[in-house]
């Protein structure tokens, strides 16, 4: 099962097992971690699940045009920015590390 490490805005880190087929956002929300607000519930329409992909990002599909458009307006967006609702875990994702910026929501 893939492991996702979440580096949170308060400086803490949490490493969780997140099943294949779920998103990085799902792992955070289902475990009540702060920082990923996910106002739209994962439908790629709000950017309140913005994260920086620190490690393991090669296992994810490239961002869609819709995701790229939303990231243009995300506060603090960088080249390693992604929407965590679009980061679907698979067997190729052994370990992923993301940083949750202090700007979501």
TrEMBL record:
CDD domains: fer2. Residues 2-104 form the 2Fe-2S ferredoxin-type domain. It holds the Pfam family Fer2. One of its GO terms (biological process) is P450-containing electron transport chain. PROSITE patterns: 2FE2S_FER_2, ADX. Keywords: 2Fe-2S, Iron, Iron-sulfur, Metal-binding. Gene3D superfamilies: 3.10.20.30. GO terms for cellular component: cytosol. Its cofactor is [2Fe-2S] cluster. InterPro entries: 2Fe-2S_ferredoxin-like_sf (IPR036010), 2Fe-2S_ferredoxin-type (IPR001041), Adrenodoxin-like (IPR001055), Adrenodoxin_Fe-S_BS (IPR018298), Beta-grasp_dom_sf (IPR012675). One of its GO terms (molecular function) is 2 iron, 2 sulfur cluster binding. PANTHER family: FERREDOXIN-2, MITOCHONDRIAL, FERREDOXIN/ADRENODOXIN. Belongs to the adrenodoxin/putidaredoxin family. This is 2Fe-2S ferredoxin. It comes from Amycolatopsis thermoflava. The lineage of its organism: Bacteria, Bacillati, Actinomycetota, Actinomycetes, Pseudonocardiales.
């Amino acid at each position: 099962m893939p492991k996702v490490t979440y580096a949170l805005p308060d400086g803490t880190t949490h490493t969780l097992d997140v099943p294949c087929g779920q998103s990085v956002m799902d792992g955070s929300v289902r475990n009540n971690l702060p920082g990923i607000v996910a106002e739209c519930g994962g439908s790629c329409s709000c950017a309140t699940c913005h994260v920086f992909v620190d490690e393991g990002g090669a296992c994810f599909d490239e961002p869609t045009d819709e995701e790229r458009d939303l990231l243009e307006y995300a506060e603090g967006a960088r080249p390693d920015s992604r929407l965590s609702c679009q980061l679907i875990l698979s067997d190729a994702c052994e370990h992923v590390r993301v940083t949750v910026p202090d700007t979501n929501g």
